[in-house]
Amino acid sequence: DQPAMTLISALTSSLDGELYTGNPTPDGLVLWTGELTPGEHEIALVVEDAAGNTAEATASLLVIGDNIPPNCLITSPEDGAMLPTGEYIPFSADVDDPDGENPTTLWWSDRHGAMVLGESFEFILADGVHLIRVDVMDERGGTCQDTITVTVGS
After folding, report:
1. In which order are the strands placed within the sheet that holds 54-63?
2. What is the pTM of this model?
3. What's the confidence (pLDDT) of residue 135?
4. Does the bond joining 77 to the residue before it have cis omega, within 30 degrees of 0?
5. Which residues 6+ apart lie within 8 Å of 150 measured at CB?
């Protein structure tokens, strides 16, 4: 047994590299404060004594940063499209979340209300002008909306 103050400790992150090198406290604690990059880290603590003997401990740590809202864009039908009466209309949206979360996609029509969950589907719209909206929400509450107007029939 050696006094903690004679040990050298090194704390590293698989994403951020070296975090700390120095002596533990007299109680044997290694204290570090700082910021870690968002992502999954493997944290390693290596302690070395005066004779060169080492001990190592590791832990996994997930750091979650600020939420970045999802992106969404209605790709079909086109805004301002004139659509045929009584036919299935393909609807689709490009949806992604920069945080890698699985966003929920909900489609709405001002004339039909909630239409469907999902990024693509087919639907028969009633004749007339429709305001179509896609609402996207990620797992941490970030949102995106896109809207188009289409006309069905003459």
Report:
1. 17-22, 8-13, 39-48, 54-63
2. 0.64
3. 97
4. yes
5. 77, 79, 80, 81, 82, 83, 89, 125, 129, 130, 132
